[in-house]
Hints:
By secondary structure, the protein is α+β, with helices and mostly antiparallel strands. The longest helix has 22 residues, at 294-315. The chain is built from 13 helices and nine strands. The chain has helices at 52-66, 102-108, 119-138, 158-163, 178-182, 193-207, 213-216, 234-244, 259-267, 281-286, 294-315, 322-325, 362-365; strands at residues 9-10, 13-21, 25-32, 38-44, 76-84, 87-95, 100-101, 151-154, 170-173.
Amino acid sequence: MSRDLTGKTVGGFRLSDILARGVGSTVYAAEQTSTGEKVAIKVLLSELPKDKAAAAKLLAEVRRATAMPHRNLVPVLDVDSVEHKGKRHLYVAMELLHGESLKSRLAATAGQPPHALPLHVALQVASEVGGALQTLHQADVVHGGINPGSVFLVPPSDAKKQQDPDAEEQVYLLDTGLLAASETGAKSSKPRTIDDVSALAQLVSDMLGGLPETAANGKNAVLPLHWHNRKVPARVDAALRAVLGHSKGAEKGSQIDSVGTLVSALLGTVDTLPSLHSWSEEGRRGMPAPRRNSNLLLAASLALLGGAGVGYLMYSPDPGPTAIVQDLAPVRVDLAAPAPADLSAPHDGSAVSAPSGTTPSGAEAAAPPVWKKRT
């Protein structure tokens, strides 16, 4: 098939410029003739089966695969076939996206150490592509063609940036259901969900720099990705090696065989499956606030109150005996007076006065009062 269909009308769409050329398809910019809406048309180079029943079955499978509603799956408007030079080819009309493919993004970082995307970007792409794959797998649909060229990144609009300065790129998974159509007539085994899991792990490995050839055969290749990307955590490297077979002598039962398990291991939440957008803006809003230890806070508060109370009792001024002995008369002691004859008589605490008819001297009069000792 000629790659150039510029100016032709396919279904209800008028094709214009070529946006991208691939090994098995060509993507055109197009316009819907009825509404004037700008769309993108992907035309497969492979021919549909000659058998009309087989061709109709293939088209039905692609339509079902592309009809899955998900924020990370590109919206598809139409799936049909176009005849060109006596051959019929499948085409997919989809929403026109403004951004770049992950393949182009990785190519731009090829000459920049560490030849990888930032860790948070790689995990965001892994989570959102994994969410789309999880939706497909739940509907018994296998993508079968996960690679950097099938992931598209759309930057946030200016209006969205004004609302949220930290807005992230929108991640889209392309080419859903097109693997079977592109391999028509080829003898190949039917893709499985585990193939999508391995392809997603390889995608994350490529985003983080890939496995260095020097480290693959080295004795110190404990963390292969860590060799030239120091920001790769051990949990991410262990999860990727468990899927891609880089971890020798892995324990039995540690195999990651689902997209949800892989994304959970990458994000460090291996005890629960992640949400479909656990690394996206919605996920951040739903994250719980840091948990505080209320028991420790209560104990510290009680300790402070107890310490303040003890300090008040120890260092407060003596209130004095006014409340207890305010009715007691001062005891005047006359050193010249004879001692009582009966020392065994009980002392009732009454004041001792000088004998009648005597007058205390000046020194005695100036003597300070003596109070009874408090118990």
